[in-house]
Amino acid sequence: xxxxxxxxxxxxxxxxxxxxxxxxxxxxxxxxxxxxxxxxxxxxxxxxxxxxxxxxxxxxxxxxxxxxxxxxxxxxxxxxxxxxxxxxxxxxxxxxxxxxxxxxxxxxxxxxxxxxxxxxxxxxxxxxxxxxxxxxxxxxxxxxxxxxxxxxxxxxxxxxxxxxxxxxxxxxxxxxxx
Length: 178
Known about the structure:
eight-stranded antiparallel β-barrel
């Protein structure tokens, strides 16, 4: 079962026939599997000399159905709490894209805990379109987990795992065999 987070007038794009050689420009919403699928990606530092005002600090991609979707991360800080985070933009700059956030985990429970957690909201945003706060609140979210990893050349990346959120509902006795 797949679901696409779109406004009713939009049609989902089937990404299963696209090639995966390089990030591709998305002109239609991405068809996300919302039950069991897991997506992988990575963010890499943009060299300091290439960073521009209001531009991303990191860039990379996420693989969805063998297609690499561009991903950018922009530094942000909450006006209310001062919490620092990265605003995520998944998709091409001039095509349909999705937004999310990635927060640094300041108190990890164990060494195996992710260094970063966050979400991607599955509300397909065409260029120039604005959605209401209510539409953002009602949209499905995928969880994002990130781990700092050192590459073979000693540079670093954030390795990302993206998955559907688990239900917070307790498991009933009628849902298990025993």
